Task: inverse folding
């Protein structure tokens, strides 16, 4: 932490203090103070409902994330590699990119019913085009001289992919993963709110109807903390590892 | 080991090579000298099997393509791998040959440094080490010794000569430096400007071969004189 590193610690604390002060000043049901939200958070954790809903939602996030990354990457690689594939799928992606998330969710629920596969497919489909476009750019940026070098030394296909191609793709994969997570966890809540009877999104709908802003914020807060924790504990170390050779 | 007959090679609707024919004997070092941009690199790509799009034939004498190590004009290293890992990529079976080369070429102290951190000269030496680490039957060298200081260039040239001494190694050395060609090669092919054609093939007298230093300078002078204006720019 440098000379200004402390700002990063102080700023979220300041936000909490501001929140607490404003809420106490207003003294309204619409904006409970931070202390009340933290208390509710504690109670929900102890009661076990919040961990269970959180786990269910995270499971859906993981499934949709994996699905969209795998399919989106495969499509993006193919589009970056072959012009014909690119031309063929370009219009599909454009359409998919421009369909509002909610429309896609509602349509899939109507067509396939209010079930888990429809929910996860809806989320994955929302994220897939952006992933494909990002990975396509990555594939296009592959240094042909290095591929040629590997070919000339008769490096096997698998080793070339692993040691020559993937390291060049990694910045694009990280960009797609990071954007993907931030998009997906938001869409998962909408999917849950519209058609699932479990998960954080479902809870938020319940508390919305009960006008229970405290619990609503408690759930939101828990979710933000978990996702940020994932960013710090998994994404950033992975990215640091992939970039350790950069000067 | 190899006989090359190229009738024509086009690139972007322009003739860049040929007609051009030559042979390369087993254990021979053949220098190809010509002005910059005359298609020498293209010729190496064709011999290396990286460019199948040409009119002509490439005949390997014993019917199979030998083990080829290439030093490209740019080092073409993997910056995210260490010096040693760059060698590991091409020599999955063992490190002995690579380690010896790292010592010879002064790269041993930086063996665990990422290739991204190497100086230009070090990167070039690593590229040379990589080509020889696979214990090739044939090396294709594309201006391999430029941007090396004189001591290191001498060391790197010695790698080529030593490898040739210990076992049968053939080499195609592309260069625009006539002195270098004279110091290393058994035979020198002089190419014209684009499209590259053979102007003259010179056999280095056996007693002057691979002599390095002063003898080469003298020989280069003789060649240059014989050629007149052809290589004033390149050499």
Result:
């Amino acid at each position: 932490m440098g000379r200004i590193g402390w700002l990063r610690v102080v700023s979220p604390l300041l936000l909490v203090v501001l929140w607490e002060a404003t809420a106490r000043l207003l003294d309204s049901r619409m904006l409970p103070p931070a202390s009340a939200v933290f208390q509710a958070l504690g109670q929900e954790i102890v009661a076990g409902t919040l961990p269970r809903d959180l786990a269910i939602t995270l499971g859906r996030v993981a499934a949709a994330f994996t699905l969209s990354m795998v399919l989106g990457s495969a499509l993006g690689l193919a589009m970056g590699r072959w012009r014909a594939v690119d031309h063929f799928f370009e219009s599909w992606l454009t359409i998919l990119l421009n369909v509002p998330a909610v429309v896609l969710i509602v349509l899939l629920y109507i067509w396939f019913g209010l079930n888990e596969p429809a929910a996860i497919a809806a989320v994955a489909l929302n994220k897939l085009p952006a992933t494909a476009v990002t990975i396509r750019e990555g594939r296009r940026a592959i240094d042909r001289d290095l591929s040629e070098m590997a070919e000339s030394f008769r490096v096997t296909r698998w080793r070339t992919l692993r040691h020559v191609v993937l390291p060049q793709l990694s910045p694009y994969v990280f960009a797609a993963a990071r954007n993907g997570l931030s998009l997906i966890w938001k869409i998962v809540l909408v999917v849950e709110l519209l058609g699932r009877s479990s998960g954080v999104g479902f809870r938020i709908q319940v508390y919305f109807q009960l006008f229970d802003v405290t619990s609503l914020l408690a759930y939101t807060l828990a979710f933000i903390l978990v996702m940020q924790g994932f960013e710090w504990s998994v994404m950033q170390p992975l990215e640091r590892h992939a970039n350790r050779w950069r000067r | 080991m190899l006989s090359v007959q190229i009738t024509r090679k086009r690139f972007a609707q322009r003739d860049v090579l040929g007609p051009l024919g030559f042979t390369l004997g087993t254990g021979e070092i053949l220098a190809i000298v010509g002005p910059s941009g005359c298609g020498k690199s293209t010729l190496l790509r064709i011999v290396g099997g990286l460019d199948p799009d040409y009119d002509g034939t490439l005949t390997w004498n014993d019917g199979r393509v030998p083990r080829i190590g290439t030093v490209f004009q740019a080092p073409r290293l993997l910056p995210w791998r260490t010096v040693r890992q760059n060698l590991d990529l091409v020599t999955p079976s063992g490190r002995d040959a690579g380690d010896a080369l790292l010592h010879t070429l002064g790269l041993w102290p930086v063996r665990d440094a990422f290739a991204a951190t190497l100086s230009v000269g070090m990167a070039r030496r690593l590229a040379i080490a990589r080509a020889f680490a696979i214990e090739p039957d044939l090396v294709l060298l594309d201006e391999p010794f430029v941007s090396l200081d004189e001591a290191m260039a001498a060391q790197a040239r010695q790698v080529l000569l030593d490898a040739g001494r210990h076992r049968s190694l053939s080499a195609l050395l592309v260069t625009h430096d006539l002195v270098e060609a004279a110091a290393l090669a058994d035979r020198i092919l002089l190419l014209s400007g684009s499209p590259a054609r053979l102007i003259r093939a010179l056999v280095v007298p056996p007693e002057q071969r691979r002599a390095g230093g002063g003898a080469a300078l003298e020989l280069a002078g003789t060649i240059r004189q014989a050629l007149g204006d052809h290589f004033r720019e390149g050499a």
